[in-house]
Every structure is written in structure tokens, then in C-alpha cells.
Prior knowledge:
This protein is of the alpha/beta class and 459 residues long. Helices cover 55% and strands 16% of the residues. The chain contains 13 helices and twelve strands. A five-stranded parallel β-sheet has the order 2-1-3-4-5, sandwiched between helices. Strand 4, helix 5 (122-129) and strand 5 form a beta-alpha-beta unit. The longest helix has 104 residues, at 144-247. Bound molecules: adenosine-5'-triphosphate (ATP) and magnesium ion. Adenosine-5'-triphosphate binds next to helix 11 and helix 13.
Amino acid sequence: xxxxxxxxxxxxxxxxxxxxxxxxxxxxxxxxxxxxxxxxxxxxxxxxxxxxxxxxxxxxxxxxxxxxxxxxxxxxxxxxxxxxxxxxxxxxxxxxxxxxxxxxxxxxxxxxxxxxxxxxxxxxxxxxxxxxxxxxxxxxxxxxxxxxxxxxxxxxxxxxxxxxxxxxxxxxxxxxxxxxxxxxxxxxxxxxxxxxxxxxxxxxxxxxxxxxxxxxxxxxxxxxxxxxxxxxxxxxxxxxxxxxxxxxxxxxxxxxxxxxxxxxxxxxxxxxxxxxxxxxxxxxxxxxxxxxxxxxxxxxxxxxxxxxxxxxxxxxxxxxxxxxxxxxxxxxxxxxxxxxxxxxxxxxxxxxxxxxxxxxxxxxxxxxxxxxxxxxxxxxxxxxxxxxxxxxxxxxxxxxxxxxxxxxxxxxxxxxxxxxxxxxxxxxxxxxxxxxxxxxxxxxxxxxxxxxxxxxxxx
Length: 459
Ligand SMILES: Nc1ncnc2c1ncn2[C@@H]1O[C@H](COP(=O)(O)OP(=O)(O)OP(=O)(O)O)[C@@H](O)[C@H]1O
Ligand SMILES: [Mg+2]
């Protein structure tokens, strides 16, 4: 912003003698006597003489030529501060037209219009040029000092306007930068807040889960073991009942035998014998589910004392997990694998398997009546590996999307989903300092992407 003041002037007039006059007025030859100057500075030190401002005057003898000079000057980034323009130039453009053209190229150019007569009324001219603040009128014959003062004042005015405009631009840039920085801060904060909310939910759920799991574990344990015992006992009872039934006809007296038979039919003993094992089986399955939920809950809240961080092969983990869930997938989807070569990653391998299992089972559960495809891809991206589980199932509605990582959020029927799969997975991925994200389109399918650092530096 500390450029030297602009003292470049343009004179457009078709009368050559006017140019000589202007030159004399604005560019007086300063008499210099080098010998005298040298003596002066030897006597008084290096003194800076106050000099009259030096103008650089360029001449054009018609409007078109003037415009050409201006265009060239602008291209060279050496703009004029001020133009003196003759009003009446019969050969080409008149002053008004010339000024219009000049301002198209350099709107900030200060202009003095010089004239002896007036072809326009000044009001009309000012009106036509829309420029009360850039245009002055100099009537011929003019006074030398008047020309000098105009040149000085208007060149200074041009400089000030340029400085103001540069400052405004600079300020606007600063405001723009600051606004951007603030916006980024706001976005970042929102992101952190939502993460905080998520991790708070997880933490409080974790405490709850640890307590509940602990309380439930014991009764579940003895119910489960009692059911097994009960099943065994019932088998024995059944053998005994069968034996009794075979002996039924031999019982004497015959009325007693009839009585036994009537009782057997009344109690629907055959049905009971069939139904009791089914009830026991269902109860055992139910209890098995409870055991699984408790296990999930414990996993969820676990501080992970038993597990250790180690370098493991993610692909092996995926494959063994796929084996475990094979029966769940069998009738629902084909699995396609696109594995990229992966380095071993530092992780809690069994927990990552659990993430994969949740994602794959969710994908299978998202299939409609038709058989679908689950595509599992992996790859490396600088310091991270990534894993994607994509399905062509029914997709997730946009308004549901932000809730799917919430603990206990499920859209599945009671008994089928607990809504813990994804929140568990989220917790596990975060523990690995990784990231899990989802993109989905209703009716098209869903893709989950997990990104995990290869190393847990300073973890
Ligand atoms: N691949 C998917 N396609 C469609 N919806 C999905 C998919 N994965 C998750 N969802 C939606 O997100 C919800 C939450 O998933 P999450 O795995 O946490 O629980 P869940 O599958 O319902 O129950 P759980 O996993 O505990 O058995 C699901 O109920 C379902 O609505
Ligand atoms: Mg699930």
C-alpha cells in the first residue's frame, strides 16, 4: 500500500500549443547547477530540497488516441491519475464522448474538461456523465496556478481514493477470512458436540449395562442350566410314561385300565409329550438370546482387561467372522469380496470381528424376499486401512440415518433386534481411534465404511 504517489497525467487536446502551455505549467524545467549543489551539501550536509511536485504529462491530440494511451497505461499497470480533456475537438470524438470512453476503461480517473465555449449546458453534461465527483470544469483562458492546483489536488484525490479502496479490499478479505475461520470453528464444535453426546450416551449406557449384565447373569445362568436338567428329566419321565402306557391294557381289573385310559385321553398326554420338549427348546433358545444380549452388554461396557492390543490380519478376521455367520447369510445373500492387500493392524482383533459381524448381519437383515448381495471391500489409505460392507437391501431413510448409532435404536421387530449392534460397533471403532460412517439410499442399499489406523501410536 506504500506505493509512490501517482503523478501521471494525460492531456487530450487537438491544439498543439495547448500541450506546450501545459508542459510549461506542470513540468517546469528545474535549473540545476551540480557544482553549486555539491558545495551546498558539503557546507550544510545532505539537505533535501523541497521540490515542486513533478508530473509526468502524456499528450494525445484526439479522443481516440487518448483512449489508446489510457488502455496501454492500464495494461502496464501504470494508470493515469488525471486527464485534461478538451471539449471541442472537431476531428473526432468530442470531450463528452471521449470522457465516456475513458471511464469505461478507468472508472476512477479524475477528469478536468477544458473549454472556452459550451456545447452542452454543464447540467446536461454532468447528467450525461453521471459523474459529479470525478469531473471538474476548467474554462479557457486558464490561469497557470489554477491548472497546477487542479493537477495537485486531483492527483492527491486519486491517490487517496486508491488507498481507501485497497484498504477496503484488504478489510473485506480479513472479514472473509475471519468468517471462514469462524464457520470452521462452528462446524468443528458441532461435530465435537455430537461426538460428545454420542460418547456420553455410550458411557452412561456402559455403566448401566455393566450393572444390568452383572445382575442378570446369575439368574440367567441357573435358568439355563435348570432347563438343560429339566430336559434330561423329562426324557426319563417320558420313557417311564411310555412304559406305563404299554402296560395300561394289562392292568386289572379292566375298569381300572379304562379309568387310566380315560385320564390319559382327558389330559391329552400324547400332545403334552410332544409339546413339552418344544416348550423347553424354545425356552432354551430364548435364554440363549438373553445370554447373547448380556454378553453384548458386557462387551460394550468392558474396560478390556483381558484383551490385548496386537498386530492382526483384518482379512483373516473378516473371513472367520463370515464363517460364523454363514448360516444367517445362507438364504439371504451372496457375499462378494474385494480385498486389497492389507498390512497387519494394531487392534483388539476379536472386537473388530464383532464390528464386522454386526455390519454383515445388518446387511443380511436388510434384504427383502429376493436374494441380495453383500460386498465386502478392504484397502489401504496412507496411515489407515478401510473396510466397507455394502448391501443392496432396502436402505435407510434420511431421517433415520442419524439415529442408527444410538444405543437401543432399532427398526426391527421385538425379539429380532436389540438396537445395540451399531452402537457397540461405534464404541469399538472409536476405541481404535478410527471412524465409522454410513451412506444409504432408500430402495438401493447401504454402505458402511470403517477406517482404522494401522498403528495405535502412544495408545
Ligand atoms: N445395512 C442396513 N440396511 C438397512 N438398515 C440398517 C442397516 N444397518 C443398520 N440399519 C438400521 O439401523 C438400525 C440399528 O442397527 P443395529 O445393528 O444397531 O441394531 P439392530 O440390527 O436393529 O439390532 P441388533 O444389531 O442389536 O440385533 C437397524 O434397526 C436398522 O434400522
Ligand atoms: Mg444389527
